[in-house]
TrEMBL record:
Belongs to the ketol-acid reductoisomerase family. Keywords: Amino-acid biosynthesis, Branched-chain amino acid biosynthesis, Magnesium, Metal-binding, Oxidoreductase. Residues 222-364 form the KARI C-terminal knotted domain. It comes from Streptomyces pseudovenezuelae. The keyword Nuclease does not apply. The keyword Transmembrane does not apply. Pfam families: KARI_C (PF01450), KARI_N (PF07991). This is Acetohydroxy-acid isomeroreductase.
Length: 488
């Protein structure tokens, strides 16, 4: 995949990555005056949906485009309960910035599809049918591409199709954008892709969209690559694997004699707190380097015992995403569930002590648990290696496997807890986590943890120490905002 591109609007940079370079766009509010040029030909942006991404993107786009002649409108289904919140944020029927989703789609030059995946699967043909000639279709992940492939559909000819995909949850996209009002460049990184470009303006439009969202840096991918890395990642290190890891580690700690709160601190609190912060600010290697010799031995044994089982599951997830099996399972589950609520996962014993563990934060700082660190870093590295072997570009690899986790999702899990995140994420992610989280849990309990009693595999440790991901993360860190996301 080529990661080189040009822009007629924005100044681009070259970022050194393992084996070559990538073209990237460094964001910031100083670029906002260039947005009218990037959005040339667009007089109305229609954002369909008011979920976490829809809300955040509509607000960010409106704020960034203020003072131009480009209007941002929100389109919702009739009777949507979200209309009231959209009105409180200043989108109204009276000024034409809030309306029926098909009416908004029909009158927009860029139509950003941020409705729920199930609704998108069911209603995309209705939306396509009302698009004005030449309107551009905007996506923020590749679910629709996967669905069209499974069902034999296609995007309508004559329309540009672009994607801008923030590497973080919707609330992160909005919160860091607001922090960017004080610290230029604060935001969530985004990838962009051009699926169809009938008039040759798609790249600059996508880059403008990303700048308007507040992305600190934007990198190129393809919609197919983004779809695979996004769906795999949320089932692995971004969410599904995290759930399996903390459940298995909590059980391990309890069996070793820890009281419930200590077991929670050594498992969930460790990953979402000190381990995530260390990786975010200092990289993967720093987690191991900060340990004393005894801790490093524990880390090494946990790491080398976990890497193999984790890699096997991630490869299986990838295969099922790539061939459409995973998406078909989601669609089948959506049909089976209909409008029925899904059962929560937060009923296992560890989540009953979450509040008590959080209350102890004021009393002491929880140190990095070397066993937990070894398990988590091994799983993260396994995903990195799977993506690298499958040909993903390095910016996509480190954002989908590391940066999105430690700079967006894990801070929210730390503020609430992992179960809360699973039970309140998108249905696509939730279904995938419920399917694959227990697979990680079982594999680690049955295979990895017994093997961690054996000496560490020196070859795997050498591979970790010399891993090209460290170089890629170091390059990406130079574009990292100087502020952590606020989750208060």
């Amino acid at each position: 995949m080529t990661t080189t591109y040009t822009s007629h609007v924005f100044p681009l940079e070259t970022m050194d990555v393992p084996g070559g370079t990538e073209t990237v766009l460094r964001g910031g509010r100083h670029l906002f005056p260039l947005l009218p040029q990037a959005f040339a030909g667009v007089r109305r942006v229609g954002v369909l949906g008011w979920g976490p991404q829809g809300r955040a993107q509509a607000l960010n786009l409106r704020d960034s485009l203020a003072g131009t002649d480009i209007q941002v409108a929100v389109g919702l289904r009739p009777g949507s309960a979200s209309a009231a919140d959209a009105r409180t944020q200043g989108f109204t029927e009276e000024d034409g910035t809030l309306g029926d989703w098909l009416a908004v789609a029909a009158d927009s030059d860029l139509v950003v599809l941020l409705i729920a995946d199930a609704a998108l699967a069911a209603h995309h043909e209705e939306i396509f049918a009302v698009l004005k000639p030449g309107a551009v279709i905007g996506l923020s992940h590749g679910f629709l591409l996967g669905h069209l492939r499974v069902t034999g559909g296609e995007f309508p000819p004559g329309h540009g199709v672009i994607a801008v995909c923030p590497k973080g949850m919707g609330d992160s996209v909005r919160r860091l954008y607001r922090q960017g009002e004080e610290i230029n460049g604060a935001g969530i990184n985004s990838s962009f892709a051009v699926q169809a470009d009938p008039d040759g303006r798609a790249t600059d439009l996508a880059l403008g969209w990303s700048v308007a969202l507040g992305s600190p840096y934007t990198f190129r991918t393809t919609l197919d690559s983004e779809y695979r890395s996004d769906i795999v990642g949320e089932r692995a290190i971004l969410l599904g694997a995290v759930h399996g890891i903390v459940e298995s580690l909590y059980t391990r700690c309890r069996l070793a004699g820890d009281d419930p709160v200590t077991a929670y601190e050594r498992s969930c609190e460790n990953i979402t707190g000190p381990i995530a912060r260390t990786i975010s600010h200092r990289g993967l290697r720093a987690v191991r380097e900060n340990l004393d010799p005894a801790g490093r031995d524990v880390f090494d044994r946990a790491y080398t015992a976990t890497y193999g089982p984790a890699r096997e599951i991630i490869a299986e997830i990838y295969d099922e995403v790539a061939d459409g099996t995973e998406l078909r399972s989601v669609i089948l589950a959506e049909r089976r569930l209909g409008n029925r609520p899904m059962s929560a996962i937060g009923g296992s014993p560890m989540w009953s002590v979450s509040d008590r563990a959080h209350a102890r934060r004021a009393e002491h700082d929880v140190p990095v648990d070397p066993f937990t660190a070894g398990v988590f870093v091994a799983t993260m590295t396994a995903q990195i290696d799977e993506f690298a072997e499958r040909g993903h570009p390095w910016s996509e690899i480190v954002n989908e496997s590391v940066i999105e986790a430690v700079d967006s999702l894990l801070p929210y899990m730390h503020a609430r807890n992992v179960a809360f995140m699973v039970d309140n994420c998108s249905r696509t992610a939730r279904l995938g986590t419920r399917r694959w989280g227990p697979r990680f849990q079982a594999a680690f309990e049955q295979i990895a943890y017994p093997a961690a009693e054996l000496p560490a595999d020196e070859a795997l440790l050498t591979a970790f120490d010399t891993h090209p991901a460290h170089e890629a993360l170091s390059a990406a860190a130079k574009l990292r905002p100087s502020v952590d996301i606020s989750v208060a």
